[in-house]
Automatic annotation (TrEMBL):
Record keywords: ATP-binding, Nucleotide-binding, Transport
Alphabetized GO MF terms: ATP binding; ATP hydrolysis activity
Positions in coiled-coil regions: none
GO biological process per UniProt: transmembrane transport
Family as reported in the entry's similarity comment: Belongs to the ABC transporter superfamily.
Organism: Symplocastrum torsivum CPER-KK1
Family annotation (PANTHER family): D,D-DIPEPTIDE TRANSPORT ATP-BINDING PROTEIN DDPF-RELATED, TRANSPORT ATP-BINDING PROTEIN
Name used for this protein in its record: ATP-binding cassette domain-containing protein
Cited SUPFAM superfamilies: P-loop containing nucleoside triphosphate hydrolases (SSF52540)
SMART domains given in the database record: AAA
This protein's record includes keyword Ligase: no
Domain ABC transporter positions: 2-202
Amino acid sequence: MLKGENLSFRYDDRQPSILQGIDIEVAPGEIVGLSGPSGFGKTTLGKLLAGYLTPTQGRVMLNGQPLPKRSYSPVQLIFQNPELAVNPRWRIGKILNEGLPPSNDLLKALSIHNNWLTRWPHELSGGELQRIAVARSLGPRTQYLIADEMTAMLDANTQALIWQAVTTYAHQHNLGLLVISHEAPLLKRLCSRLIDLTKTRN
């Protein structure tokens, strides 16, 4: 279980809390949708659950233990803009192998072509680069994936391809998936449970 308990967060004491008293959990194999108004802290919550930020109050637990501070994280976070998540000075092959190499089946499901591996990030389209980001995040040790508006900027065909690959992988590997999105139809179609962030305050 990936669990956030009584989570609060503020950047400094002069600002109000972005999040306050949030309880949230995602079970292995579960696909959970997270919605809420813009600016309400959805991305901040995703960063807390993935260990990118430290909560001002509360804690994040993975299988009853604190998130590991070093090495490959079992909780991976994918953002809306893949250009911000990759090193522009690395070729695609090196980016894919930064953690643990994804399986050939996953590369095939995401329609990632071998000739991409020698290219630079700027030589791929946004949709192609997002598929690389997804493949890199779904390594053998990944237990949970947080998808923060992962396909919001992509065309319909690329969205469908990515979600088909990710949900199939999640079912096959008992992966817990938290989908952060403004798109209610997407959340209803993908998720077994929906969380409205406006209703999770203690």
